[in-house]
Amino acid sequence: MLNKTQVDLIELLNDQKVSSSNYLADCLQVSKRSIISYVKKINETYPTLILSSNKGYYINNELLSQIIDDFPTIVSAEPSERISYIILQLLTGTRDSINITNIGYELYYSETTIRSDLYKIKEMVEAYELTISFNYNTATISGPEQKKREFLFSTLFNDADQNVYNLETIQAAFPGYDFNKIQTILSEIIAKYHYTMSDYAFLNTLYHIGIAMNRISHNHILDRELYLKFVRNHNFTIAREICAKLSKAFQISFPEIEIMQIALLMAAIVVNNDRSEITIDNLKENLWAGCYNLVIQVADNMKHFYNIDLYDDADNFVNFALHIRSLIHRLTATISIKNPYLKDIKYRHPAIYDCAVYIANTIQYNYPIIVSEDEIAYLALYIGSIFENKKSHNSKLKVLFVLPNYYNINQDLYQFYSDQFDKYITSNCISHLDSELDLEPYDLIISTSKLNHYDLKIPFLLISPIKSDQDRKIIYRTIDDIRKEKHKSKLKNNCIHLMKDEYFYLDPAGIPDRDAALDLMIQPLIKDGSVSDDFKQQVLKREQLSDTVIGIAAVPHSMNSNAAASSLSILISQAPIAWGNNSVKVILLFASAADEYLSTYGDIISFLSEKLQEKAFIRKLTHCRCCQDFVDLLI
């Protein structure tokens, strides 16, 4: 029979990945020796329930699921939900503190679990220059008011995930305020002064205002000097009118510094309706010199390193430039915004996101600001359409129509099918097939005549001389099959081109973390001249901007496609490897030459990013034993 503290230990480990004995002792308020004794007792009662590694103890989840009925106090719930609730209780009240016992009663969890959650929150708030302190049964959050708001903003937005537009999360957090009414007030005033906001910007503004109203109502007022260099008189006018209407509607008095903060928000987010008058020809007149030069530098480097031409779409380029201007304003004034599609962009479109990371790095090099992952994802939106259009064009099939001429019926037929499949093919039409015609550039021949007397080495499709839906479907399926086969062949050839057996590492000994893994994988590349001596520093700089972890895999690479030779090194480990705040079992290290970015990293990682979300694929990946296994898995 286990005692209460031993059951608390199981409950505590149920919420953790791996926990050290020191951490567990702090949470349970016992000695480290007691933890060792408890583990021994638990494992005598339930053999192998608690496992250990060099990092600490962790629970055997499979066994726990079988014996969970023995522990009625262990509630199967997401720890993240408890943590969000505790953060809200800490930051939406009068004293920025909570009673641990009361929170435990409210959530039906033990004080041990709540205390454990608070230790997690304590680690989370360090990034915001905040601290959590304990005094008997009370936990208090301390630090600058602006940072508290940023942390609360981040928590609420993360809770909402991609359902942020229905405002349910923020309405539930602050039930005393009608956010539909706040939305109406904001919309009317913005329109009155002939300004507009993107949906993203409007959403972020609602969250900022809602949090400010709650904090002000509990006498938590901003205590920092505001950066007002780029705030104009009309921004103050808009802010004062917003605050006046909110005050009347919700009986809240806005101090002057809070009005200034909203003016700052307006200056950093709203866009004047004269945007349509700004073109690529007069863009320079609408940006300060440093910003304009930065935009041109980014565009030129994107063309050089990634072969992506931002100038291709003039209107998109102007929007991109104005976004850079607003971004610099926002981050200089330390105004944070969130992107509801960050995870989708980062993990489903990693090549596009990577281009945006490069832009963020260029901005940070020129200005003393930190570009967050949310801001990086916004930058990716401007690159995405150009990137995908280029990718789509490169993947088009070359199709030859052989249609005998009969009163121009052949031209009508050709026009019909070429228009139908313009998105997928480039084509031309001839009336007969000349034996001397070079067919090697073509992927498919479509004809109304049998071509049996020709020794065709490429796919051939016979269609009716009369347009039909049946032929249209057959052509579509054939094109789709050929595109898939070409993509598989391209992936295979790229992998063969990039990989060497000596760059494949299977369960290497003594690799506990990222540094050790990179040292092992990069040294051979330096030795054979594929990368420069500072390649590891380049890779770590990229990781610092935004980690490259996708599921249980990390995909490290440098931001500069400047390798002497492109390569792909693979490490597979059965034991987890610490990678920043994550742990991984697979490492795919890319090095790209300047002219091979899209065809190496871009093409392979775009395919892998979706596969790395699939459990079956991950299981097969971790069982690869050589380069050929990896290639076979991809195709």
Characterization of this structure:
With 635 residues, this protein is an alpha/beta fold. Helix content is 54%, strand content 12%. The chain is built from 25 helices and 16 strands. The strands form 5 sheets. It has a 5-stranded mixed beta sheet. A 4-stranded parallel beta sheet has the order 9-8-10-11, with helices on one face. The chain has a 3-stranded antiparallel beta sheet with strand order 3-5-4. Strand 4 (131-135) and strand 5 (138-142) form a beta hairpin. Helix 8 (145-160) crosses helix 11 and helix 11 packs antiparallel against helix 13 (256-269). The longest helix has 30 residues, at 469-498. It starts with a helix and ends with a helix.
What does the secondary structure layout of this molecule look like, with pairings?
Elements: H1 4-14, H2 21-28, H3 32-45, E1 50-53, E2 56-59, H4 61-67, H5 79-91, E3 97-99, H6 100-107, H7 111-125, E4 131-135, E5 138-142, H8 145-160, H9 168-173, H10 179-192, E6 195-196, H11 199-217, H12 233-250, H13 256-269, E7 271-272, H14 289-306, H15 314-332, H16 342-348, H17 350-366, H18 373-394, E8 397-402, H19 409-420, E9 425-430, E10 444-447, E11 460-462, H20 469-498, E12 504-506, H21 514-527, H22 535-545, E13 549-550, E14 553-554, E15 567-579, E16 582-591, H23 598-611, H24 615-621, H25 627-634
Helix pairs in contact: 2-3, 5-7, 5-8, 6-7, 8-11, 10-12, 11-13, 12-13, 13-15, 14-17, 16-17, 17-18, 20-23, 20-25
